[in-house]
User: Fold these one by one.
Assistant:
Number 1:
Amino acid sequence: MAALDPFPSHRPPDDGHRTRIVLAEVSRRAPSAELTRTELTEQTGVGEALVRGLVRAQLALAVRMSLVVAIGLGGLPLLFAIAPAVGRTTVAGVNLPWLLLGVASFPFLIAVGWGYVRLAERNEQDFTDLVQRPES
């Protein structure tokens, strides 16, 4: 009794020639980072949304730091008006308001500026990482 072949159509031809089967070339897709960069340079809707997100993050940071400066420096005259004894205090023969507004304000502004630059660069680095993220 002969064994039945369950897949007779998959049997190679008996003419002695091999048939070469070539898969269609898989279309290459650009990596997601390249797609994102393209969308940014061509200013597509997605690219505009990414840039808008960066601008919003930078604006929110600027507003927060402005509030820190406004409260830090703007609150001093309010403090002196509410507590006149603090305004009349002297340190080494100099009135405390002059020391705080004339001397201490500069290191405060430098520290806020340094913090702003550091955080703004972090926002930009996060944006760059998002744009250059490899395809998962």
Number 2:
Amino acid sequence: MTTKRKAYVRSMPASWWQRLGFYRFYMLREMTAAPAVWFSIVLIYGVFSLKHGAEGWAGFVGFLQNPLVLLINIIALVAAAIHTKSWFELAPKASIIIVKDEKMGPEPVIKGLWAVTVIVTLAILTIALLF
């Protein structure tokens, strides 16, 4: 049997996320996906530039030296740092670690993730500078 009543649909304004700081930060974190896509496309372009030898690589380097591209890459770096920070802060909530019958706080996990990030980054930079 069908009803003639109209279904209740709660209205949701487009600015729903602007009400609370938690939602604003959530939307900021979600918006970091766009610069990540940009970085991925630039990386793929660089890999395909290698296919065309020195001329292709020179064209890619010239592209990277464009002031607009440099600005977009700086924005992508900041977005990646924001995304990394937010995910490192969420990691302790996803895994509960018990040490001596007590739940470990989030600080050691967050500091450990940052330490691994710094060590791996320095290792990659060292290898890149040596070769």
Number 3:
Amino acid sequence: MRMSVPACISLGLATVLVIFSYAVNPDPALLRTALPMLGLLAAIPLILNQMNMRQADRVDMRDFKLYPIGDLTKLGAGTPVRLQGTVEATALKWLNRPNFQLKDNSGKIKVFMFAAPRENIKIGDRVEAAGNLRSFGVKKEKIVWGVKIQKLNR
């Protein structure tokens, strides 16, 4: 289980503030109140991340039709798709909402994940992703809103 960087920063800042407040005024009532709150501040992001991963685990990749990436331009927005390719780039892993650029013989596409995958997916990994096709931005670039991604070369 992973916490996103903003969640870690929030927890760290709150912890520093509690320590500073206790150093200024050493009242045990402050600790009785603040420590459970710090525990919740740490537990909630971890629990939500775990729930997202469990939901993704329930997705059956066979329910999505496999398409070559080059054929996705012919499909409409909202079409459920499954694709296979090699990861060329990654972004936003620190937010637990990673984006991957996948490439196969027919083209490239970006896959925006709703939740962080259980596996650590890196550049060069061969993966299979499933999600819904979307049009994005002014140019209506095709992207995939991913619900599940997994390595093929395990």
Number 4:
Amino acid sequence: METSLIDPSTFHDLAKADIGAFSPKPTSIEGDQLEAARSFFQSPDGSVDIGIWECTPGRFTADRTNSSEICHIISGRVEVSRADGEMRELGPGDLLVLPQGWKGEWRIHETTRKLYMIQSAG
């Protein structure tokens, strides 16, 4: 099986990379949030997606029932709370792993940009 690498320049200066137009966040529960995302890589079978996501301040629910996610915060400040109440504050440079089955909320304090890798269950 041949595997190709992603061009390293794809991930150069992610803080300034164009990620397209913002639209209303469907799972927002506070703050009239807007989000934008740009996928840089998808595996041939569609099970892995790597890209950048950005969201404005507010609060939204998140559900990783059918996927897991690794998030590297590029800019902004957030609190991520698990359904059982455990909360983590995150900022630039922090890494967060949301295992498959994770459910909770994100509270965005400052517009936040992250690099994400989502792996769908399969």
